[in-house]
Design goal:
Strand content: 5-15%
Helix content: 40-55%
Number of helices: 15
CATH architecture: Alpha-Beta Barrel
Oligomer: single chain
Strand order of the largest sheet: 1-2-3-4-5-7-10-11
CATH topology: TIM Barrel
Number of domains: 1
Number of strands: 13
Largest sheet: 8 strands, parallel, barrel
CATH class: Alpha Beta
Bound molecules: beta-D-fucopyranose
């Protein structure tokens, strides 16, 4: 059996600034909400922080060498806003931009297309001190930051992503409180979500006005949602959960409106965000692709105890990764087919997919991560299946290029194709990296 992917398929791997860079106080970088959060006792696994992480700030050349060895066509990374604007707004810090200029030109020299995420959760702390994303002013500061990045890197970067997973930034950061800034207020979370979406639309507009000819989109974390049973209550809960997780973000961006039923549901409970005139059309800018991150699927039952959406995920007994996420490759196929239908054949890039497992360096110094290899293999088969049935998928980024700081889990969850020994910063290509390299070389398997 051969599975060939479309010509020029974007084979990549992804990372994010706070998870890999380290150098947290170097060259004028300002504090971000993740510095503050991870330095707060009890917030992360064993008090782990991104102070050093993979030390990528100093080792990016070696890391690009590794990407080249794997044969990546493209590399997705994010920019640390507080490196460029230590206070979030005002005067830029040119030293910060120097790093990204070097990174981007080194990637281009090596024939690896840079795909840049503007916001992967590391808001400058100074802006959080003024209310963070719940404060509408942050939207303007983000657009200024985006413009500065477009001016400096616009001619070198062909792929842009405004936001990474606004659901997680809003809900996990401001309602569940497991991520920075660690707030636990639902109304704040929906307000944050609205401002993230608005800032996305305005940044897309600024990008078009900058005259650069690359592609720009947004990355949403999306799961296919299935009702846990045929029970009407479960079905209704699944519909609500799909609107809560997926459509709350995709609909404004692609259709210019929040899903009406859930908007009403929130309004009935006094939770709906304030939407000013013109906001929805500002969010609804034409984008070039939809980025999706998918790791697992959501099987949903009605749950009276789970305010305010009254829907909970159940386990289905499938095998789990070290994140405790159930492995369901078919789910990615179903999701792609669903999105294709729901959003009129939109071009899709899978901007993250991957798995954490217990990796062990064996006596020969190798990491034989067959479980990760199987995970990637079976998910990619489903991507291929979706492409075969006509879904317009243009690329796939494995999460992650290398083991890194997994947010609240610190360094306890390894997602990399490349193993990182955090004591010595030694990198070891895992078996999955060698396998992925073959997949890229053959444009399939
Ligand atoms: C996603 C994040 C990414 C990484 C993976 C495992 O939600 O975008 O930074 O943490 O999960």
């Amino acid at each position: 059996m051969r599975s060939n992917f479309p010509e020029n398929f974007l084979w990549g791997a992804a990372t994010a600034s706070y998870q890999i860079e380290g150098a947290y106080r170097e060259d004028g970088r300002g504090e971000s909400i993740w510095d503050r959060f991870s330095h707060t006792p009890g917030k992360t696994f064993q008090g782990d922080t991104g102070d050093v992480a993979c030390d990528h700030y100093h080792r990016f050349e070696e890391d690009i060498g590794i990407m080249k060895k794997i044969g990546l066509k493209t590399y997705r990374f994010s920019i640390s806003w507080s490196r460029l604007f230590p206070d979030g707004s005002g005067e830029p810090n040119p030293k910060g931009m120097e790093f990204y200029k070097k990174l981007v030109s080194k990637l281009n020299e090596n024939g690896i297309k840079p795909a840049v995420t503007l916001y992967h959760w590391d808001l400058p702390q100074k802006l959080q001190d003024n209310g963070g994303w719940a404060n509408r002013d942050t939207v303007c500061h983000f657009v200024e930051y985006a413009k500065y990045v477009f001016e400096n890197l616009g001619s070198q970067v062909p792929i842009w992503i405004t936001h990474n997973e606004p659901f997680v930034a809003a809900i996990v950061g401001n309602w569940i409180g497991r991520h920075a800034p660690g707030i636990t207020d639902f109304q704040t979370a929906l307000r944050v979500a609205h401002h993230l979406l608005l800032s996305h639309g305005l940044a897309v507009k600024a990008y078009r006005e900058s005259g650069h000819k690359g592609e720009i989109g947004i990355t949403l974390n999306m799961n296919p949602v299935y009702p846990a049973s045929e029970n009407e209550m479960d079905k209704a809960a699944a519909k609500r959960f799909n609107e809560y997780l997926n459509k709350w973000y995709a609909d404004p961006v692609l259709k210019g409106a929040y899903p009406a039923d859930l908007l009403e549901w929130f309004a009935d409970r006094g939770l709906a965000p304030e939407i000013l005139d013109g906001d929805m059309s500002a969010i609804n800018q034409p984008i070039d692709f939809l980025g999706i991150n998918n790791y697992y699927s959501s099987f949903i039952r009605h749950d009276e105890h789970n305010w305010p959406v009254y829907a909970s995920e159940i386990s289905t007994g499938r095998d789990r990764t070290k994140m405790d996420w159930e492995i369901n490759p078919e789910g990615l196929h179903d999701l792609l087919v669903y999105l294709d239908k729901e959003y009129g054949g939109i071009k899709i890039i899978i901007t993250e997919n991957g798995a954490a497992f217990n990796d062990i360096v064996n006596r020969e110094g190798k990491v034989e991560d067959d479980n990760r290899l199987d995970y990637l293999y079976t998910y990619l088969e489903q991507v291929h299946r979706a492409i075969d049935s006509g879904v317009n998928v243009k690329g796939y980024y494995a999460w992650s290029l290398m083991d890194n700081f997994e947010w609240g889990h610190g360094y306890s969850k390894r997602f990399g194709l490349v193993y990182v020994d955090f004591k010595t910063q030694k990198r070891i290509l895992k078996k999955s990296a060698y396998w992925y390299s073959e997949v890229i070389r053959n444009n399939g398997f």
